[in-house]
Amino acid sequence: MGQTTTAKFRRIRKLFPVTGERKRITYLNTASTGPLALPVKKALYDYYEATQYLEKSAMDADAFAALDKIRVLGAGFIGAGPDEVGFGFSTTFGLNIAAFGLPLKNGDEVLLSNIEFPANVYPWLALKERGIRVKFIKSINRQFDIQQFRKSISRKSKVLSLSSVQFFNGYKNNLDEIGAICKENGLYFVVDGIQGCGAEPIDLHKSQIDIFSSGAQKWMLSPLGTSIFYIKKNLQAKLTTPFASWLSVDWKLDFTDMFHYELPFFKSAQRFEMGTYPYAHVFATLAAFKMINSLGIGNIQRHNHNLLDILIEYIQSNHHYRVTSCLKEEHRSSILAFTCVNAEEIYGKLRRSKIVTSYREGAIRVSPHLFNNADDIKRLIAVLNSF
Questions:
Q1: What is the pLDDT of residue 345?
Q2: Model confidence over 256-274: pLDDT tens digits?
Q3: Do residues 336 and 366 lie in contact, with contact meaning Cβ atoms separated by under 8 Å?
Q4: What would the mean pLDDT of 125-149 be, rounded to a whole number?
Q5: DSSP code of 89?
Q6: Which alpha helices (H) appear in 14-59, and where do they start and end?
Q7: By the 8 A CB rule, do 166 and 115 touch?
Q8: Beta strand pairing status for 227-231 and 355-356?
Q9: 55 against 114, higher pLDDT
Q10: Which ranges in the chain belong to alpha helices (H)?
Q11: Distance (Å, rounded) from C-alpha 238 to C-alpha 232?
Q12: Mean pLDDT computed over 272-294
């Protein structure tokens, strides 16, 4: 990264109260929840302050304009068109659109990895009452395996639903190759993107992904209860509407004449959104998206990987620790997991030292983001070095 970009990261770090000296916290846990920056907090405060004195209706135009901007910026993060992107409230929201909207019938089969986060499992298991079967693909070395995927495809297989990045070890799947296999075999390709979106570049069109969903509270640094989802343009009309909202149609912001039941549904992903919108979170999400966009996803990825390189070099030089993440360039993400014989004890020591990580599947998971710097990693290493 050039000096100008590096300076941008330094400036943005100052926008995160969690990095302040007063708190003495080293936050390396974005894969759980991203901290809120000052502009995001200000957007929340400004909305609630304004609603003390104004009717909510006075905010409608601004909120709907903000939603339009979120769709545009969100589309830029994932290589999509704005009319393919909607605003939701969780990763599971978009996955439910896929599970209950795709034209599946009795006897069809959905393929899932056996190491998926539950958010990408239960929406599909709920289809069993409709006679739809879920088949789990065996992982190899705790990673999604392409050959096992190929072997699992049968004549009844209709959908593969997969995480872009595995939550516990940061393994980044080769979505281009997997998407090509789905296309070749006539499978719908659904992706849970929460552990990559905002930190790892992705091109949904290039990867031939049909439906994508990502909560925004992790790497997109937005409040809990926010997300974006994507539905490929030529698939939108083929989906059953699993649920509908009064805001699935265009009222032209005229909420004074509501007895119209003949309005057509949006011909975009907006048709699948649910109202009424949480305006405070809409404004906060826009502030977060603007900040991410100002840096660029590619620059964020390089920044995060460079920080993890410092930790990897240390771990590989210390016989006590072992990296459990895949270090091949094409499978790396902004998540790194490592373990040792007393990993849970060390995790506890890190917590007591106010170094925030996660303990997942017997390993310590580290997930730095754009607000972290090399000093944060060195502080982590100092504690590791005390064992």
A1: 97
A2: 888 989 999 999 999 999 9
A3: yes
A4: 97
A5: S
A6: 38-50
A7: yes
A8: unpaired
A9: 114
A10: 3-13, 38-50, 60-78, 91-101, 122-125, 146-152, 175-185, 279-295, 297-316, 343-352, 374-384
A11: 10
A12: 96
Q: How confident is the model at residue 148 (pLDDT cuts 50, 70, 90)?
A: very high
Tokens 């759980």 sit on residue:
32
Fold of 50-294: Aspartate Aminotransferase; domain 2 (3.40.640)
Report the alpha-carbon distance of residue 123 to residue 339 in Å, rounded: 32
Mean pLDDT of 79-97: 97
367 φ, ψ (degrees, to nearest 5): -140, 80
pTM above 0.70, yes or no: yes
201 in Cβ contact with 298 (< 8 Å): yes
3-30+297-384: CATH architecture: Alpha-Beta Complex (3.90)
DSSP assignment, residue 163? E
Least confident of 108-122, 259-273, 302-316, 322-336: 259-273
192 secondary structure, DSSP code: E
Q: How far is CA 368 from CA 38, 70, 247, 356, in A?
A: 18, 24, 37, 10
Candidates 64, 23, 330, 368; CA nearest to 171 is 330
Domain boundaries, the chain: 3-30+297-384, 50-294
Q: Which two tokens stand for residue 276?
A: 């009424």
